[in-house]
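BACKBONE GEOMETRY TOKENS
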Amino acid sequence: MSASKVLPLKTIYAHGTVGLPMAVYGYPLAIWIPAQYSGGLGLELATVGLILMLARLTDVITDPLIGELSDRWRTSIGRRKPWLVIGTPVMLLGVYKLFIPQGEVGVLYFLIWLTVFFLGSTMIMLPHRAWGAEMSNDYHQRSRVTAAREFYYLAGLLIAATVPMVVEITADGGESVMGVLSNLGRDAAGVFTGDIMNKVPTDRAALTGPVLAALAWALIGLLPLAAVICFFLVKEPPVSSVQKQVPIKEGILHLLKNGPMLRVLMIVLLVHFGESFRNAVSLFFIRDIVGVPTIGAAYFFYFAAGLAAIPFWLAMGRRFGKHRAFMATLITVAAVSALNLSLVSGDYLPFFLLFIVKGFCFGGLHFLPIAMLADVVDVDSARTGGKRAGTYFAIFGFTEKIAIAFGTGFSLILVGMLGFDPAQGVAGSSELGVTSLRLVYCLGPVVFYGLAMKLIWNYPLTPSRHARLRDRLARREARLLEKQAGEVR
């Protein structure tokens, strides 16, 4: 597959399939796992937050190691494909143990299986992202590759939202699974008015265990299927015969001098910290502050809006540049977050209207920075002569994960220490705890997005500058190939 040719849609979408199961795990990790291990299994909320941070610190070692290995490891099937084969069983083991805990569950159990789970996801996600960045050199085609992965990611999130909704409605002998699926639109729409309340058990906090078990089985079915499709239907682009192997120490020095890369990392750090700071308490805000009867239906609408909006954000990135389109998403989501501060229990319709607007921005919020990073890798290639997408996506992924881990951890620790009890809800929590929950959910993203916007405003790698950079790289490779051919003769 030539990186300079237009990529067939079949190839783009076969590659993106891995995004679907990776989304199904991301949603419960952010929303359901903290609620289950704190409210359902009895760990302190602040302890859960601390463990989430500690488990993520293992990425300090695993992310750079896997990124570097995937750049250098040459096999008969490629550099990136072997990691799909290795990572899939590791991640599925972690999913089973973490989502369906067995025996005595304490701090050590949570820490060990969370670490295994993170390791498996890293083995899959980092090489897969690097593989996507190498499929094309074109600025806009890279957006298409990333958007296709995001399409599957959002489809996976829709599945991840539908599963809890079905579990919630069918609990305690309620409507059958087939009945829920056949009336999905009607039941989901019922949350706007609260009509669905009579179908949902009063003790909604007790549903976190069954929801996670159902999501685990969905993942166990979807991940191997996606891995097989991507492995057999997508070829890795060949490694150029003139590609330079960059020593690790020299590569690190070049990375530290790569201005656009450092800027993207700071942007990602701030944005994902703000997102996870809010996401960690989303279930509590939606369930206990607004009183939305089914969390699954809330996220069903949210991710459906995100899926529908992908063409819009692609067009925005093409028309105005990826960084400006990204800024538009941040401004919109920050405004929505601030408006949530005025909501009280029973405000179903205002909440859902705001939630859908935020969902519309979800795709742009996640795929635009990844597409920006793929262009940043070209800056490194121009300076070093190597192709180190794996290393760059490892650093990007590590930054993203640390931001998510610390955003989640600090949020849960803060709200827990100030008196919010997830097992008791608003009635059993202190007034300060409830107020902190409101402020973290509504104003946390506003603060961190605001800091990121200044870095995005004058982002240097515009479409025109990237085109000049690609021309420079193409001319250099042509010269090296010509020189190599002359030496052979």
Notes: Residues 16-236+250-475 form a domain with the Growth Hormone; Chain: A; fold (CATH 1.20.1250.20).
